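User: Um, any thoughts?
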Amino acid sequence: MKAVPSRSSPVLLEVHKINAGYGASQVLFDISLAIHEQEVVSVLGRNGMGKSTLIKTLMGAIPPISGTLYFDGAPMHRLSPDAIARRGIAIVPEGRMCFPNLTVEEHLVAFATRRHAQGHPWTVSRIYEMFPRLQERAQHLGHQLSGGEQQMLAIGRALSTNPKLLILDEATEGLAPIVREEIWHCLTQLRAAGQTILVVDKYVERLLEVADRHLILEKGRIVWTGSSEQLRDSRAVWNKYLSI
């Protein structure tokens, strides 16, 4: 496993006092955060606390009411989702959203690009090495895959763009335990390779092993942030903000 990134490493994503919501209903309040290069950060919180709204705002699907977003040193709070993607952010969306009429290989080829000039790019063959099951299903259509296979494909599709920042929204939601383990193994490998990641998931114990830092959202506000070690030792925080 790679060493924890130094806070002196460059900031890749910087969010300053973002307010956002849907129409007259405000969901996010003064959200500020920073993600450094090669850092893995998780967003935690109970359902309905604003996690998905935060991801949608970062991806440009919801324009912020106020505040600023900078990615790789350039503003992006007024950009469209496709422009944000071209900057080098890739998302594995909640619900996977695979195309039913494209094969596995067509998904990977159609989205392939080089948005991050890393030394070892993500090619179709390298994605198949990460997920051998996708290679077995290479000619199967999206609607012919199991939920776990669709999640692997959604991750592979995002990686095929060679992103600077990979965002996973509800990374293991609704998956069988054995498939969840494959996804956690994938995230561990990506961390070791130096991929910058923002992940939303409810399995806190596993996130403690994968992420460098954690943010907890409560009613649209960041109420706690800290390292895995700090969160592991803060059972009062678990009970207050994460227990159902």
Observations:
- The longest strand covers residues 11-22.
- Confidence is low (pLDDT under 50) at residues 1-6.
